[in-house]
Predict the 3D structure of the following.
Amino acid sequence: MLKILSEAFGVSGAEDEVREIIKNEMLSLCDNVETDSMGNLICLKKGTKGYCNTIMLTAHMDEVGFIISGVTKEGYLRFKTVGGIDPRVLSAKKVIIGKNKTVGCIGDKPPHLEGKKKDKAASVKDLYIDIGAKDDDDALKYISIGDFACFDSEYKEFGDILIKGKALDDRIGCFILLDLAKNRYPHDVYFVFTVQEEIGCRGAGVATYSVKPDIAIVVEATTCSDVPETDEAGFSTKLRGGGAISILDRSSYSAPDLRNVLYKAAVSNGIKVQYKQTTFGGNDAGAIHLTETGIKTAVISVPCRYIHSPSCVASIGDINSVYDILDNFLKGEVNEAWSF
Amino acid sequence: MELLKKLTQAFGPSGNEQTVRDIITEEIKGFCDETKVDTLGNLVVRKYGGGKKLMLSAHMDEIGIIATVIDDKNFVHFSEIGGVKINALHSSKVKFIDGTIGIIYEKSEKPTKFSDLYIDIPNICKGEGLYNISVGDTAVMASEFNLSGDFVSSKALDDRVGCYILLETLKSITKPNYDLYFVFTVQEELGLRGAKTAAAGISPDYAIAVDVTVCDDIPGGGKYPLVLGKGPAIKVKDGSVICHPEIKRLLADTAKAERIDIQYEILDKGGTDAGAIHTTGVGVATGALSIPTRYIHTACETASISDIKNAVKLLSKVCGDTL
C-alpha cells in the first residue's frame, strides 16, 4: 500500500489520484466518507461510545512538484516549483508530467560549459524539462501549459528496513491513517486527508472548519538531518529513533497537555519516541489550531531524510512507532489527562 | 508602578503565559462580570454594558528561547521564540521558569543564527541544576525593572505595558459605553495567533489593540518620528493592519476633549493583534493605541510613565464614565 501511495501522482492542487486510492480503501472501513469543495477527503469512523470526544487525525495527500509554465521553440519545457524544493536536488531527475504521464527529465547546462560556476546549483529558472520533443508544436501534443509534474521515483525497501521513494512526505502519514482506520476506537475519529499543505496548509483549515473536532493530531513526515558533517544540535530527528513529537515549529506551538499525553502513551508502552529538536518548518497544525475559537493540536512525524526529493528515506520501525503511539492513544478511555 | 513591575518580571514566553494570566486573573477580581480562558489560553474578561461590543486586547506573551538539544556536556542548544535579536541575546543571561539562570555565548565568532549560540547553565559545575532543564523548556531574558524619573526600563514591556493599561482602564470604569471585552492574548510574538481565535469567539463590533511600538528617537535612529514622553501613539498603519478611520477618530477626538497629547504611528513593517482581529468573521473596525518604546525585544525596553498614564486616561474615557 505504501508503495502504491508513494508512486501515485499528487502534486499540490492535483491530488485526485491519491484521493481515489485512499477513498477506495476508506469506503469499506469508515461510516461516512466525503470529499469537500477543496478536495479534502473527510472520513468518519464512529466510536463505540456515544458520549466521547471528536478526534481528528490528518495527513496531507499532496506532494511537492512542478507546474509547466512554458515551452521553448526547441521543445523544452519551462517550469516552476510547487512547494519548497531545493534546486540542488533537481538536475538530471526523471519527472512525470500531466494526465498523459509524459516522461521527462530535468536538464541543466553541461558542467564543462559552466566554468567556475559549476560548483553552484542552478536556479530553477535556468533549468528545463526535456521530454524528447522535436519542437514546441511537437511538445504540445504531449503536454499542456499548466500541467503538473512530479518526480518519477520507484518505491524500494533497502538496508536495515529502510524505505526510499518520492512523496513519503506525507504519503507515510496517509498510510498510517489508513492502517488506524481498520480499528474502531471509543471516540469518534475523523480521518482527514488534506490537500495543498505544501503551498501553505490551505486544505487543512477548511477541513477543520467543517469537522470542528475537540482535538487534532497531525501525522507528518519531518526533516531528519542525522547525516555526516552535521552537528547533533542540527539533527532535528534521528532515523530509527521512533515517532517524533513536535514541541514548537514555525506554524504552531503544540498543545502541551496533548503532546505530553502522546509522549507518555509511547513511554509507558515501551514504544520508541523522540522530540523533534529543531523549530524549523511548519505543517497543517498551523492552520488547524487557529480555526475558529482554537483547536488543541499536536503533531507526530516519521523522520525522513532527503525530504522533498525523489529519494526520501524513512524507517519502517519509525512508521510502526507512530502507528503504535496513535493506536495506544486512541484506545484510551476518556480520562482526566485529555478530556478537554 | 508595582503592578507593572510584577507584570514585566513575570515569566511568560509565547505559549507559556500561565504565570502572567494568573497575576491578571487575581487583579481583575471584583472589577468584571465574566472571565473565560479559551482553548489557546487567551484570558477574556467581560464587563457588561449596553450596545456594541468593544474588544480591547493586549498580549501576555513575551519573546524568549526554547531548549532544543541538551548535549553530552550538558550545554543547551536552542531556538528563538518570536523576534529575538541575536545581538541582544549574545553574552546575556536568560532565566527559566524555575529561576535557573543560563548564560548565552557564541560557538563561532560573529554569530548570525541561533544555532551559533548556546546556553551554559553554570549550576551544572556544582552537579546540580540542569536536571530541571529538558528539551522544550523555555526561558526569557533576565532583567531588572528600573524606574528613573519618567522612564521605566525592563524586559517584556512588550506587551505587559499593554496588560497594565488594560487592567488600569478596567478598574477605572464606572459606567461602560459599550459591552466591554478586555482580552489578554497569547502567542502574539509567534504571529498574532491568540488574538485570532479570541476575536473569533467574541465577534466584536470594534477593537483596539494596545501594544508597544518602535521609538526611534535615538542616536543613529530617526526613521520613525515618535518621541518618548510625547504621548501615546494612535496607530495609522503597520505591516499587519490599516486602522479603521472610525477608531482613529474616536481615539483622536477623545484625546482632544481630554487634552491628552497624542502622536501618530506609521510603521512599514511589524504587526500587532489588530492585524489578526480586523479580518475576523465579517470584519471588525479595529484600531490600536501604542506606547512608544525604545529597544523593543531586548532586556531593557524603555518607555515613558506619562505616556502609559495618558494611555490609561484616554482608553478609560473611550470605554465609559470613569472614577
Observations:
- The longest helix of chain A spans residues 316-331.
- Chain A has two domains: 2-63+166-338, 65-151.
- Helices of chain A lie at 2-7, 16-29, 136-139, 168-180, 202-211, 256-267, 285-288, 316-331.
